[in-house]
Automatic annotation (TrEMBL):
Biological process (GO), any one: methylation
Database matches in InterPro entries: SAM-dependent_MTases_sf, SAM_O-MeTrfase
Recorded coiled-coil stretches: none
PANTHER family: PUTATIVE (AFU_ORTHOLOGUE AFUA_6G01830)-RELATED
Keyword set includes Transferase: yes
Keyword Methyltransferase carried by entry: yes
Highest taxon in the source lineage: Eukaryota
Keywords: Methyltransferase, S-adenosyl-L-methionine, Transferase
Protein name (database record): S-adenosyl-L-methionine-dependent methyltransferase
Family indicated by similarity: Belongs to the class I-like SAM-binding methyltransferase superfamily. Cation-dependent O-methyltransferase family.
GO molecular function: O-methyltransferase activity
Length: 244
């Protein structure tokens, strides 16, 4: 017996999400050699082995430009539940791609804003204009319930996140090229409220690429308490508990 979705949304949004997850799984299965899942470190290793002289990040971005790879559906649903349980209203997504996980973030933030009366925003980040354009189309298809909650920042997130962040951030989602993860955390950390959560995808299968991030998050001196959630390929949950 399948478990019903915890996501409280109009039927047309739920149907769109189901379709987008199906497309993502089909594309991942077509290009991945490992359990039908695409891990940035695996892709990067293949690019390095080709040794064609291109800069690693540039080659990775070019390869993934038209690849529709979304955060797993069960992880998205967990994230939605977590945001509503926390009453989170200010969320940052590092790595928006085609905007599937962003829909869950926006739906959850919309609910918590309505329940708490607080203001809030989902700050989404995407380097590629082509992907950002597609994401906006999906959000528009969802309607105002989703699109009005999102502040999409195009370009290098290490630049676009330097200014204009909420004074207190409740949650940061990391679903990006591994070398960008730790620099992103260090930009956002001064804005994290006590009890804020960082979620990082593929931290078991991508542990080597995430080595610097995981070492930082797991060092108690940096104020985080961590657990690796038992989702496919790992989903790291780090709670910010800075010293008083």
């Amino acid at each position: 017996m399948s478990t019903p979705s915890p996501v409280d949304a109009p039927e047309h949004i739920l149907q769109l999400l189901s379709k987008l997850h199906r497309i993502s799984l089909e594309q991942e299965a077509a290009i991945s050699k490992k359990n039908g899942k695409v891990i940035s470190t695996d892709v990067q290793d293949e690019l390095n082995n080709k040794n064609d002289g291109s800069e690693p990040r540039s080659a990775f971005d070019q390869l993934m430009l038209d690849k529709f790879i979304a955060l797993d559906e069960d992880k998205c649903q967990f994230m939605y539940q977590l945001i509503t349980a926390m009453g989170a209203t200010n969320v940052i997504e590092a790595g928006t791609s085609f905007g599937v996980s962003t829909i869950y973030l926006a739906l959850a933030v919309s609910r918590t804003k309505a329940a708490t009366g607080k203001s809030g925003v989902v700050i989404a980040t995407e380097k590629e204009a082509q992907k950002a354009e597609v994401a906006r189309k999906y959000w528009a298809e969802c309607g105002d319930m989703v699109s009005r909650e999102i502040d999409l920042r195009e370009g290098d997130l290490l630049e676009t996140l330097k200014t204009g962040l909420p004074q207190q951030v409740d949650l940061l989602l990391l679903d990006i090229w591994c070398p960008l993860a730790l620099p992103t955390v260090k930009i956002v950390q001064p804005h994290l409220r006590p009890g804020a959560v960082i979620l990082a995808d593929n931290t078991i299968s991508g542990a080597e690429g995430y080595a610097d991030l995981l070492a930082y998050l797991r060092n108690p001196e940096n104020g985080f308490r961590n657990t690796t959630l038992p989702f496919t390929n790992g989903f790291e949950m780090s709670v910010y508990q800075p010293a008083k």
